[in-house]
Each structure stands twice: as C-alpha cells, then as structure tokens.
Amino acid sequence: MAKKVAVIGAGVSGLISLKCCLDEGLEPTCFERTEDIGGLWRFKETVEDGRASIYQSVITNTSKEMSCFSDFPMPEDFPNFLHNSKLLEYFRIFAKTFDLLKYIQFQTTVLSVKKCPDFASSGQWEVYIQSNGKEQQVVFDAIMVCSGHHIQPHIPLKSFPGIEKFKGQYFHSRQYKDPAGFEGKRILVIGIGNSASDIACELSKKAAQVFISTRQGTWVMSRISEDGYPWDMVFHTRFNSMLRNVLPRTIVKWMMAQQMNRWFNHENYGLEPQNKYLMKEPVLNDDLPSRLLYGAIKVKTRVKELTETAVIFEDGTMEENIDVIVFATGYTLSFPFLDDSLVKVENNMVSLYKFMFPPHLKKSTFACIGLIQPLGSIFPTAELQARWVTRVFKGLCSLPSEKTMMMDIIKRNEKRIDLFGESQSQLLQTNYIDYLDELALEIGAKPDFISLFLKDPKLAAKLYFGPCNSYQYRLVGPGQWEGARNAILTQKQRILKPLKTRSLKSSSTIPASFLIKILGLLAVVLALFFQL
Ligand SMILES: Cc1cc2nc3c(=O)[nH]c(=O)nc-3n(C[C@H](O)[C@H](O)[C@H](O)COP(=O)(O)OP(=O)(O)OC[C@H]3O[C@@H](n4cnc5c(N)ncnc54)[C@H](O)[C@@H]3O)c2cc1C
Ligand SMILES: *[C@@H]1O[C@H](CO)[C@@H](O)[C@H](O)[C@H]1NC(C)=O
C-alpha cells in the first residue's frame, strides 16, 4: 500500500519525519515555505514573518549526546553544547546522509489542509499549496504537521498600562539579534525564561543597567553538572527518573528545591519561584547568578505601570529613564493553515492524543510532530513521535477509541498541572523519560531490562544508571540499529573528545560521583528491603 504523506515544514521535526517516512517505505513530500532547511536553527540577521527567529548567540540547552537522533551520533569533535550554527551543520550532515533534500519542495507554503469529501472511507486530505505565486491543490493519504511553535510572538500589552505613553523602544525577544546598539542603555527585560535570561546576560555586558522583571521567579540551573558532565546526562537517567516516580511527591519536590539551591540560594538572589514545589521548567544559564552578583542585572517584580520614561513595579519601586523594554514573554500556538475543527487552540493549548493525534478523526491519518516541551531535548522526542506516527499511517499500529483518547488527554492534563503548574509557558510540559518510553512501547522499541540484564549486564547497567539517550530505542524492535550498543558504550569518549585539546599525563582515581551512586543504590535496596 503506497502512502503519500505530506510533511509540512523542514525544520528539525520535518527532517526527522521525512527520514521516518522513508524508513517505513512511505512516499513523503515536504513543503517548506523558505528556501532552506533548519527552521528555528537557521539564524538570519533579519526577522522573517512566519518563521522562528533567534539571536546570534543561541547555544543549545540540551547536550549533544542527549540531542542527537538515535542512529546518528554527532561527530566526536563537536562540543557538548552547540552554537546554533554548529547544530545546523549537524542537521545538514543528517539530511545529506539520508538523502532527504530531494523530497523537499522549497519556497512552497501550505495555505490550508482539508479533508477530502470521501474522508470517512479514504482518510485522504487536500493540501493547498502556494509556490511562485501559483496556487495548487494536491491530494495526500496522510499529514504530518511540523510547522513549529516558536513563531507567533505573545506580547500581553494589556497587562502593561501606560505602554502607549512610553517614549522608549520596546519589542519582542524574537526581534533581538545581538547587543550592538544597546551600549550605555538602561534596559528592562520582561520574563525569565531561557531567552529572557540569555538576552539579559548578553546585554548586561554593554548596557548601563539591565533589569529583569518576573512575577513568578524561577530555578536557575547550570549546564554543568556533577564532575563537569552536561546537566541532562546526570538528570535524565532511568535510575533518577525511577526515584522521582517512586518517592512521595512532596519529598521529590523538596529534594528538587534543595538540589536547585546547592549552586546558589535562590531566595537571596530574588529568584526563588513563587511556588517552589512545582517542577516548573528551570532556566539553564551559567552566567545569570554571576551577573546578579556583579549588579549588572537586577531582579524586579511584576510591572504595574509605565510612564513616558519610567517603570513602576508591583512592590511600589520605580526605575527611571528606561530606554528599552524587551518582551521575552513567549509565543502563542497558531496553525493558520488548519481549520479549528481539526486542531483547536484554546488558552494556548491543543487537545491532541499524546500531543500528536486529534482524537475525533474517523481515520488516523493526521499528526502533529514536535508540539511539545519536554524537560529534555526535543529532537529524540520528535523522532520517536515520527517513528510511531509513520507506523500508525501504515496500519502497523492503531489508536484506541475516541473516548479512551479523550480520557487520556484529560488525565495527562491534570497530572501536568500537578507537576508543573498552570503557567502559560508550561502548557506542553511532560515528563521526559516517561514520555519517550511510552512512545517506544507503542512501536515495540522499548528495551526490556530484565532480559537485557541477564543477557548483557554491562549494557543493562549503562541503560539504567547512565544517561537515557536516544540510542536506547534502537536496541530492539523495528528500526533496530547495529551501532546502538556501541554508541551507548562509547558515549563518554564523545563527550570528552572535544575537551581533550591539551595532552595531559593520565591518572586514574575513582570519581566521587561513582561512590555516591553506589551509596544511593544501597539506600534504595535497603529501603525496599524494609518495606517488604
Ligand atoms: C531560543 C530557542 C532555543 C531552543 N533550544 C533548544 C535546545 O537546546 N534543545 C531542544 O531540544 N530544543 C530547543 N528549543 C526548542 C525548539 O522548538 C526545537 O529545538 C526545534 O527547533 C523545533 O523544530 P520544529 O521543526 O518543530 O520547528 P521549526 O524549527 O520552527 O521549523 C518549522 C518549519 O516549518 C516551516 N513552516 C511553517 N509554516 C509553514 C507552512 N504553512 N508551509 C510550509 N512551511 C511552513 C518554517 O518555515 C520552518 O522551517 C529551542 C527553542 C528556542 C526558541
Ligand atoms: C531550551 O530553551 C528553549 C527556549 O527557551 C525552551 O523552549 C526549552 O524548553 C529549553 N529546554 C530545556 C530542557 O530546558
């Protein structure tokens, strides 16, 4: 059964969707409105309508070993956290290796996607595209929406009374490219997400003074964790995830707060989150605490009101002579080419089964990829989504009933609010490893620990105590990759290689973190023993 699939967008999600379609023997066509691949990760000096826009200095907040696709490790000499140009280079090598470019129609915009009249029986779609000013309609068997969700800026101007009087300059963070032109200015950054913190830090090196306004506060984490390893390799192990799942919620939250305060006391720095026991996404920023310590950045509370030149805050304080306001207030979801009845955006949220499938369709021939904000890297997540979707399209996997899917959406939402809170920016949050495993289970690619432990204890130990990287999902099942075992065992080499730029005489000692792990394991064994 030949299945023609339309992939909308050639960012990361689109590229991996293309590869998964090809792996499953489907016939994909990708439509990309711009002239090149990469989406968000292709930096440009100018802001383009309808495409994500990043600043020149963006560096990944997820490490290379945790961000690569499952059968395509990043080159050994790539640094662990990548400048956007380097990440784009990886995507280019990826696209070339798997010969993806020939399936992409560039400078082609998808205007709308509609069900065919005989949808109930065929499950087909009419896709209206525009290229070189010409419109055209093409029929497809299935749709993968990969159009991204960092496009439509969200500026809540109504919450800023007096903004119309303000004489300075103000703009959304998506307009920000580099610190040139901001020398000597007094700048206020609104919001405290990853972009807000990056921009505040960068500007604070040139500006006279930077203020950062936050109502909620946030935890700040360093990219560097135990023994200098990337944070996500330590945080996202199955062992740690298991602990977070089995220990009582209140203890986990308390431990997280302790952990976060180990680097610096968030209360002293004015950053402590309003509800410190929510597992709200932390900001990853290595410079922010030191910038606060230098006084180059000052933390303020919510803005109450603006005058021509000054900003008045909720706590009654005022900062005069503000020249620039940067709204790092996030994005709104929007799918201009989709009908509301298909994917309805409400309160910046969509009701999709496992963040992918509209639950009410008669045929499972439509899915969104990458519409998610995991606590880990989005790339392996989008990959597993695409692996599952393509198997659903082929009829090798099937979805449950509409009712079951609706129930799942409601339950998942309740759990999310409990873990991460109600905040706007947290609407797509999920628990990283749990979600990956869930998707892998659907396609039969989740490793079975008990049998693996008996067959290959060394590998099993790495899987359980080591970082939960994407190679783990290529060990068994469809799409198995021979290189997966080796990629897992040689991971440390690829982490250290880019750092080994000066030869040293080697010495060998047992790292403290290893001993801590052994002690942790002992504690768990003891705890389990006494419970029984
Ligand atoms: C500053 C910043 C830093 C980030 N850092 C990380 C990180 O370190 N790690 C991580 O995992 N995630 C990170 N993210 C999350 C980010 O969303 C993902 O990394 C990823 O780039 C999303 O890819 P995408 O393909 O889904 O969307 P995009 O990259 O936005 O690509 C969408 C593509 O679709 C095209 N398109 C849109 N509409 C149409 C249409 N109608 N017709 C045709 N084409 C269309 C666009 O032109 C674009 O090329 C970051 C996000 C931001 C904003
Ligand atoms: C990395 O930064 C982007 C942009 O702010 C954010 O969407 C994403 O959730 C961050 N990832 C992690 C793991 O913090």
UniProtKB/TrEMBL annotation:
Pfam families: FMO-like. It is an enzyme of class 1 (oxidoreductase). Its cofactor is FAD; Mg(2+). One of its GO terms (molecular function) is NADP binding. Its EC number is 1.-.-.-. One of its GO terms (biological process) is negative regulation of fatty acid oxidation. Its main location: endoplasmic reticulum. Keywords: Endoplasmic reticulum, FAD, Flavoprotein, Isopeptide bond, Magnesium, Membrane, Microsome, Monooxygenase, NADP, Oxidoreductase, Transmembrane, Transmembrane helix, Ubl conjugation. This is Flavin-containing monooxygenase. The lineage of its organism: Eukaryota, Metazoa, Chordata, Craniata, Vertebrata.
